[in-house]
Amino acid sequence: MKRASTLFTEADHRRVTEAVARAEARSSAEIVPVIASSSGRYDRAEDMVGLWFGLITLCVGWWLLQGVEPSEWGVPRPRLGLLPVVGLVLGGWVLGVVLAHLSGSLRLLFTPRSEQKAEVERAARQAFFDRRIHHTDAGSGLLVYVSMLERMAVVLADAQVLEKLGQPKLDALCASLVSELKKGSYTDALCHTIEQAGAALAEALPAQAQNRNELTDALVVMD
């Protein structure tokens, strides 16, 4: 699984920081962009992958090794005994768990999309509070959150921004962000969405005479 920190150069970080600074200069809002490698552990998916690998290993082993051979008294007995069967299942399960642990994409194959969405939304809310975006003086924080593994995004706003822009506008910003991400550049997608948010916020929450910068303008990367 790719780590978010490996995708951004110093120049990319500067571009995002400058985009946030320009957007905030036009309004009294605080915009915080966050990109995460993933939003959930999906431990249950690892167990599911292990179970399937165990069953597949058992079937392959049974097909290759199973048969009967006569005992010394002429009574047929299975060539594949209980201990080899248990060993095949456990070995396959361990192999599956290890592969799933190393491959986020493999875990997602066994995780419903609804569960992925719930994990991304939970992680976005956690980042919203951990980064104190909810704690600005005017309640004007805006989170732009991207989760790489799940390929999902969330735009989450504090009370004042939500009241002025409305949830449909936030949903439109999120949809635009996802559309831009599909083009392949995380930096371009973030900058474009931040600019769009800045334009909307400039009308809804114009800059004040003392436009204090309460939160960092830098891109927050969560590996």
Automatic annotation (TrEMBL):
<keyword id="KW-0812">Transmembrane</keyword>
<protein>
    <recommendedName>
        <fullName>TPM domain-containing protein</fullName>
    </recommendedName>
</protein>
<keyword id="KW-0472">Membrane</keyword>
<feature type="transmembrane region" description="Helical">
    <location>
        <begin position="48"/>
        <end position="65"/>
    </location>
</feature>
<feature type="transmembrane region" description="Helical">
    <location>
        <begin position="85"/>
        <end position="110"/>
    </location>
</feature>
<keyword id="KW-1133">Transmembrane helix</keyword>
